[in-house]
Every structure is written in C-alpha cells, then in structure tokens.
C-alpha cells in the first residue's frame, strides 16, 4: 500500500510465516515500553498471540479454502485473547495490538504495515451487503484506545486516530482525527530540507 495515498487496494508483500512471526515480536518490543525479553514477550502478549493465529487462519481462508475450520480457530483465539479478527481480514507486516482486549477487526478490513492498535478498537462495518464494508488503514497508522472506525473508509498513511473517536469518513494521510464523529483536527506535513521540524496546520 502506498505510504502517502488513500488507495484502498492492498497487495501485501509475500513474506514467510516464520519471518512474519519474528517481525511481530520485534515490533511488540519496540512499541511496548513494558515488554520484556523476546521470550517473555512471545509468551505473554495476547496481541501477538491473536495476530499469529490470524496469520494462520487467513492462509486457511484465502489459500486453502478451509473457511469453516478457519472460523473455528479464530473463535478459539477470541476466547483466549479477547481479540476478534475475522480470517478474511488482510493485515500487513509488524502489526501490533497493545493489551489486546476488546479489539474487533471485520472481514473486509485491510491493514497496512507497521500499524498499531490499542485495546478496545473496532474496525467495523456499516452495511449488511456482501461488499467491501470495513476500513482500510494505511501504513504506520496508530489507533487509540476505544476508537471506532466504521464502514469502507480509508485512513491515510502516517495518521493517528484519537482515543474513543468515531470515524465514518476518510482521513487524509499525515492527519490526526479526534472526536465523535471524528474530525481532522490537525494535518502534519512532512518536513522538507528547509524545515527543522514538521509543520502543523490546524483545519
């Protein structure tokens, strides 16, 4: 997924399952200041366990056609981790869920690389039709505790969604969305050679 566009097309890079598992652990240790050693993180992080199971169930769903089995395994994972990820959801590399509990990711959700969700986040739908009905998150997006992103909206790369926000419209890249319903309260423009820091424009 391009880092600076709101394109909804998603074509994850092919990476081996074990390599993805290692990347996930490294991301968890980098993003969670409370993380311990690699072993402790791997054994005690429900967010990691949820994404690892999803990486398996997604392959069962997409490549092997074992959809009933994938749903059953995902259900068991939800029971143990408190995280519900539909096997059909597409999730990129180095994905991390902090704390994990209460996260719901719907079937047609698409998540880019280096995305972080806090607990209680919902990537939900607003339609009962069998179409693309869940959000698309660009690369390096962070979603705060309790936020709800609903419908086939696009959250542009390098954006942040504030805690408890309810997002029902697209969010441009490099933005901050807060409130109910969420509004883009600040737009961060990457710095250029002449800028010492990124400029913030309130809109």
TrEMBL record:
<dbReference type="GO" id="GO:0005737">
    <property type="term" value="C:cytoplasm"/>
</dbReference>
<comment type="similarity">
    <text>Belongs to the transferase hexapeptide repeat family.</text>
</comment>
<dbReference type="GO" id="GO:0009001">
    <property type="term" value="F:serine O-acetyltransferase activity"/>
</dbReference>
<dbReference type="InterPro" id="IPR001451">
    <property type="entry name" value="Hexapep"/>
</dbReference>
<dbReference type="InterPro" id="IPR005881">
    <property type="entry name" value="Ser_O-AcTrfase"/>
</dbReference>
<dbReference type="InterPro" id="IPR011004">
    <property type="entry name" value="Trimer_LpxA-like_sf"/>
</dbReference>
<dbReference type="InterPro" id="IPR018357">
    <property type="entry name" value="Hexapep_transf_CS"/>
</dbReference>
<keyword id="KW-0012">Acyltransferase</keyword>
<keyword id="KW-0198">Cysteine biosynthesis</keyword>
<dbReference type="InterPro" id="IPR045304">
    <property type="entry name" value="LbH_SAT"/>
</dbReference>
<comment type="pathway">
    <text>Amino-acid biosynthesis; L-cysteine biosynthesis; L-cysteine from L-serine: step 1/2.</text>
</comment>
<protein>
    <recommendedName>
        <fullName>Serine acetyltransferase</fullName>
        <ecNumber>2.3.1.30</ecNumber>
    </recommendedName>
</protein>
<keyword id="KW-0808">Transferase</keyword>
<dbReference type="InterPro" id="IPR053376">
    <property type="entry name" value="Serine_acetyltransferase"/>
</dbReference>
<keyword id="KW-0677">Repeat</keyword>
<dbReference type="InterPro" id="IPR042122">
    <property type="entry name" value="Ser_AcTrfase_N_sf"/>
</dbReference>
<dbReference type="GO" id="GO:0006535">
    <property type="term" value="P:cysteine biosynthetic process from serine"/>
</dbReference>
<dbReference type="Pfam" id="PF00132">
    <property type="entry name" value="Hexapep"/>
</dbReference>
<keyword id="KW-0028">Amino-acid biosynthesis</keyword>
